[in-house]
Design brief:
This protein is of the alpha+beta class. The protein contains 8 helices and 7 strands; from the N terminus they run αββαβαααββββααα. It has helices spanning about 5-15, 30-70, 85-100, 105-110, 120-125, 190-200, 205-225, 225-279, and strands spanning about 20, 25-30, 80, 130-140, 150-160, 165-175, 180-185. Strand 4 (about 130-140) and strand 5 form a beta hairpin.
Length: about 280
Amino acid sequence: MSKLNFFDRLRRSHLKDTKINVGSDSIYINPKVKLILAWSLFALVCIVFVVVVKTKVNDKNDKKDDKASTQTEEPAYAAYEKDAYPEINTLITSYYTAVAACDGATLKTLVTNPEEFDDITKLQSKAEYIKGYNNLVCFTKPGYDSNSMIVFAQTNVALKDVVSEPYDIYQFYVTKDKNGKYLINNGELSTKTQEYMTKVASDEDIMEVYAEAEANNNAFKESDATLVQFYELISNSAAATTAAATEATTEATTAAVTEATTAAATEATVATEATTAAT
């Protein structure tokens, strides 16, 4: 009798009905059924394996994101970088261009809170005396977390009927969205982030930038009478606005007190008349 090779043994043991005794009865499992069960079990194992691996990968990514977004310690001091990030310069340039043009639609695409520009009345008021922003220079420092930057944007402001263009510095907080694109964060920042921004603004190298801009503006005022007139106009306008607001508040308060006093007096008169009539 010849020996059975591996495939013959496999055929005889697995490719024939399997007998299972259950008490006094016997159950026979067809080879096709066994094959279906085997492949089903294999498929189930594969599915479980894929789900487990994917879950672990997602957990790992989530932990990375959480670590980036839940910074607990302030970043160490870092000197500013000048125009080091072209994408940030492009963002701030687009912002200033849109502000000067009162382009609310474009501004909504550059910030984290588009609703701020549903009403562009304030922009239109500024546009009455600001013609544009030129010569942008971005001084950047690390933000409170790894997905953000603090930007000190220095520009020369072109003013209506003014010869020189004074320096202006504005502090922005820019953050990356889910696609890695920088946006100006105009939403509500955490207390820690605000405190960190205030601290960074007082760094010695940033203070030097402010001091140099102020020195240049003082030089402009000494040589440009139109700039001096502009500052006086703005100062007088602000004083007039404050005075008008104070007067309006006083008038409203006086009117309210008078109305309350009149109402009380009327009520007292009515009560006296009622008492007299009863007597």
